[in-house]
Amino acid sequence: MARLLRTFRDGIGTVLGPSRLFPLVLLLSIVPSLGFGTEIPLDEPGFTKALAKLFRKALPGTKVTIDGPLSLEVRPPDGDTHQSSLHTLYDFCQRNPQKCAAAVQNHVAQMSDTYHLGEVAPDRKLLRAVLRPSSYVEEIRKMYAGKGEPPVAPFMGDLWIICALDLPQAIRTLGPGDLAKLGLSRAEALALATKNDADILVPIEQAAHPFPGGEVSLVATSPYEASRLLAPES
Fold first, then answer.
1. DSSP assigned state of 70
2. Statement: residue 42 has pLDDT above 60
3. Order of strands, edge to edge, in the sheet holding 82-85?
4. Torsions phi, psi of 2, nearest 5?
5. Which of 76, 84, 140, 193 has the most crowded Cβ, counting Cβ within 10 A?
6. What's the angle, vertex CA 136, arms to CA 185 and CA 69, rounded to 5?
7. Would the pLDDT of 119 be above 90?
């Protein structure tokens, strides 16, 4: 288990997005053009402004405003207001500037599809537990301010367990209102989400690749691969 933890620790930035387990170097540069006339600056204000512009282009008729550093408010004409946190994407771009253009394009496409779908009824079978840094949790709390505490729990260090819904094109954070629809408490939702993760993960004996010296490597093929830390028996 210690080796498995070390393997995830070394690769956790790729699986989870931002993590304060690693120092970040601010890259004040610009990634290549995305092919539709927009360059992505790698400073926070410029990055936020550029993503807002891309979402406005991808979502005609939807009001997209900057709600703060790395945070957007997306308001479809016939739907609820959504808070879009850019922290995970921004951190990825800081660490992988050459891959940033593709990541941004994919993020905008997937999230735009999600906003077009509107509200999806929560389903217990779709519950998943994901690991995110405390900064991500603070964004979620701001999103649901005055509506109740979202289903989150501390894990270790700067990492938190977050309950989410596994949608076809995105992973959506579970909100306080979803708990009532599911008939679950926060603790019950987190426990069920963790169980669902364990059920979908390929056994570590099949997924891991042994190396000389007793080390193992694990190629992540699922956005929930890091959730093995929550279910070591997997």
1. T
2. yes
3. 63-68, 71-75, 82-85
4. -60, -40
5. 193
6. 135
7. no
